[in-house]
Amino acid sequence: MPASDFTTTLGAVASVEGWMTDAQARRLWDASSALRPPATIVEIGSFQGRSTIVLATAAAPGVEVVAIDPHAGNDRGPQELEGFADAARGDHDAFVANLEAAGVRHRVRHLRAFSSDALADVAGEIDVLYIDGAHRYRPALEDIRRWGERVRDGGTLLVHDSFSSVGVTLAILSSLLLDGRFTYVGRSASLAEYRRNPPLSRRGNAGRQLAQLPWFARNVVLKALIVTKLRKGDWPY
User: Fold this and answer.
1) Considering the entire predicted model, what is its pTM?
2) pLDDT of 160-213, one tens digit each?
3) Fewest 10 Å CB contacts: which of 70, 77, 82, 160?
4) What does each C-alpha distance from 97 to 12, 94, 183 come to in angstroms?
5) DSSP character at residue 84
6) Are 72 and 46 in contact (CB under 8 A)?
């Protein structure tokens, strides 16, 4: 059984920096807590550990939790694509400290590497894959395709900033829209969930994803207004 309950875990991550709503945390929690050993959870993009803590506290004993993040200052957050090496060192220290404070450091195997270099460090199939790494088109597409191949039949793929980030959305449309292996389940804001099994109808599966594009257009407009300082508010995620 999980080492904690969801409400307690939300309290534990309340002060941890990151971009994750309570509803998104619930979706991660549900995916993780449903697993029984032997099983493997892989997270791509951990930042300071907000989502990592949710996945690790929900996971039953014996379920492997792997967190992949180079903490190198690239794709650190909204509008922070390059040049944050100094901040990244602090992010890594905060990540370790936050996992320690939440009591899950011993439950997480951290690979401090770019996801493209870490494939060989994770053996076997993946039961839950959570992608929240680089948001530019090419690395996001590579994560979905290369790591998605490792998700077992019936396994779960979760992609953050879906239908919100331009790069991630284009990567989804390129790789998952007409994919015959992943069924679109739904989303919590920008956290989209897919199940690895053939959709009953590829056309219907594509249609449900395309139906999210008006929400994507809204997010693009909001981001443009925030960047140009014509609107105040939180970055949509």
Assistant:
1) 0.93
2) 999 999 999 999 999 999 999 999 999 999 999 999 999 989 999 999 999 999
3) 82
4) 13, 5, 37
5) -
6) no
pLDDT digits (tens, 9 = 90+) for 43-89: 999 999 999 999 999 999 999 999 999 998 666 555 555 555 666 78
Secondary structure (DSSP) of 19-74: ---HHHHHHHHHHHHT--SSEEEEEE--TTSHHHHHHHHHSPTTEEEEEE---SSS
Spatial separation of the C-alpha atoms in residues 64 and 107, rounded to whole Å: 7
Measured CA to CA, the distance from residue 164 to residue 186 in angstroms comes to 14
- Enter the tokens of residue 154: 């019936």
Residues with Cβ within 8 Å of 93's Cβ and at least 6 positions away in sequence, in order, are: none
Concatenated DSSP letters of 98-141: HHHHHT-GGGEEEE-S-GGG-GGGS-S-EEEEEE-S--SHHHHH
**Where would I find the H helices in 137-199?**
137-142, 148, 166-175
Total Cβ atoms within 10 A of residue 30: 13
Residues in a beta bridge with 44 = 68, 131
- Retrieve residue 199's tokens: 């959709």
From the list 96, 12, 109, 87, the residue with the least C-alpha distance to 49 is: 96
Which sign does the torsion angle of CA 225, 44, 98, 60 carry? positive
CA distance 42 to 130: 6
